[in-house]
Amino acid sequence: MPTINLPGKKKPEPTFNRRINKARYNSPEWIEVRKKKLALNPVCEICKTENAIGVTHKDRIATNAETSKELLYDIDGLLSVCDSCQRKEQIRKRKEAHEQRLKK
Fold it and tell me: From the centroid of its chain, how far is CA 66?
């Protein structure tokens, strides 16, 4: 179905954190760390049945923290994951972050 662009409707600008994340995950450093992790663990570390296609962090990383750069590229803090496990991990992390925001 074609997209209809209504006058006065603008696509929202990405938030500050999304811009930072996009830059970090497209950086040569991240691409190299990701390749190394997938080479070390080619099978999903969660279900241990499927080939890993991606890498995710074991713990959620605060994008505005200075230490997040160190944590971002720490190969020991990463998991090699298959597509379905990566989706499940993303949902779990988002729920945790949402619950933490509600507690404040």
Answer: 17
Torsion angles phi and psi, residue 67, rounded to 5: -70, -15
pTM comes to: 0.69
CB-count exposure of residue 24 (10 Å: 0-12, 13-18, 19+) = middle
pLDDT tier at 40, thresholds 50, 70, 90: very high
Residue 40 lies inside a defined structural domain of this protein: yes
- Is residue 1 a part of any domain in this protein? no
Is 26 among the domain residues?
A: yes
Residue 46 lies in a domain: yes
Domain encompassing residue 48: 16-103
Instruction: Give the DSSP per-residue string, 45-59.
Output: TTTSSSB--EEEESS
Lowest mean pLDDT among 28-32, 70-74, 80-84: 70-74
